[in-house]
Every structure is written in C-alpha cells, then in structure tokens.
Amino acid sequence: MIAATSNRTMTLLGGTSKRLFTVGGSKQGSSNLKSLQSGSKVPLSLSQLKYFSSNNGDNRRHPNDGPLDHSYYQSDDRFKDSKPTVAYAKGMPRSFSAMRHEQILQLCVEGSHQARREALVRNVMTVDNVEHDDAAKVVSKISEENRSHMYLEYLPYHTGIATAGIFGAVSFPMVFHPGTVLWFNEKFVTAEVPEIADLETILEVGSFSWSWMEPIIGQASFIFLVLQFVRSQAINLGLKPYGHKILGVRSKRMCKKYPQYDPIFLEWFSESDALYGKLK
Q1: Where is composition skewed (Basic and acidic residues) in this entry (predicted)?
Q2: Does residue 53 carry a pLDDT above 80?
C-alpha cells in the first residue's frame, strides 16, 4: 500500500514485476505506478487507494493475507482502541526468517544486515532447492569467504586506530609530565626553563610545554579537518573513498565466485558484512 511502502521499495518491486501493483483489482495500477515513480500526481480516490495492494493482478490473495492487510480506511478487528489485540500480537514475527518477502526486501533496502542475510538464504534455497537450515550453512560459508581478505583490506583502519591511540596517549605526558616535558625541551626545543617554583603543578608544566605543543597539536587537528572536508567534497562529486571502494571490489569478487546466486542479494550481503560483526 502507498501509505506503508517507501518509494525505494515501490521502485524495486515495480522494476521486478509491474503487474504486482493493481488498483481496485484492475490493471490500471501499472500506469498509476509509472506516474507515482515519475513524481506526478495520480487521481486516485480513497476507495481506489484503499485497494492499492500487492496482489497478483486478478484479485487473488495468498491464503495468509487477510482481507484487511492492505487497508487503512476500514475497521480492523486486529486492533481495539487503537491498540493491537493479544491474538494479533502473538502472530508478530520473532525472527527475520519468519518475515514475509516484502518485509525482508523493505529492510534490505533500509540497510539491515540480518535482513540481507535472510534474503540471500532464501535465494540459495531457490537456486539449490534446499531447506532453510541447509541454505543458512551455505550463506555461512559465503560469509567466511567474504571475510577472508578483510584483515588485509582493513589494515589501513587498524593502522589508523593504533596510530591515533598511541599519539593520543603520548600527548598527555608530553604536555603535563615534568620529566617528559624537560627531556623533550632539552632534546628538541631548547627553550628557557622556568624557575622550579613555576613547575610545581601539572598545570604549570602544561603552561610551559604548551608554547611548543600548541602548534603541533593545532596543525595536526587542522590537517584532519582539511582531510574531512576533502572527503566530503569527493563524495559529493561521486568519487568513492577507500572504504566504499573496498566494498565494491569485495561484492564483485563474491558475485564472480558465486555466479549461480542473484547478484543483488550477494552485493547487499557482502557490503553490509564486516570483520567484527556488521556495518549496519
């Protein structure tokens, strides 16, 4: 239904099979869908809008679809006083595997890794003609292969984390520790050392060391600020930074290794997977 479906999902489903969308049980929905996707206004009455659903074009519904599943303009006995009934609450899916295809696809478009994994599992079930548990094992092997090169791909990230952590930790004694400050001054700065009475507290030591530490820290901060600006402008130009580039290379590698499965599900799963869990 329009009110419950995002434009992205409508485009995805419409691009797959436009006959899925009907209005009032007729094929009029195909032209209306084109108008909706183009951004133009569609002259639909509330009675037509009420039946804008994902049936198969001849008013037949899946047995699990109730008569009110796509309606927001009729009374719904699944709710009482604007709250769900106990019977309806008991039917809520408790896992991704219990969700319908439409729900899984919606969550895939929104970036849920678990939903993308479930979508790939169902694609494996279809292609290999196996049950869900067996397909899940295949997807686990795909995940292992997907992560096989991640340690090398993520080496710049590990290096950056370690470098930032080391410099951040070292900055404290370089500013506030008397022995470290005096040693650094003697070896690299050679500034005039204040009287001992002016170095009795860590704040006094910091005041002395700040004369040379401020330019270093300030310049380093400015460099990172400029790099962030460059990255944001590169993204605006459509240039992929390193992380996005790696995701694309990895997903293409998985599609090449497993050509029997649908590439869109492989790409979704590969790009949202990560070395220490999931990206989204």
Answers
A1: 58-68
A2: no
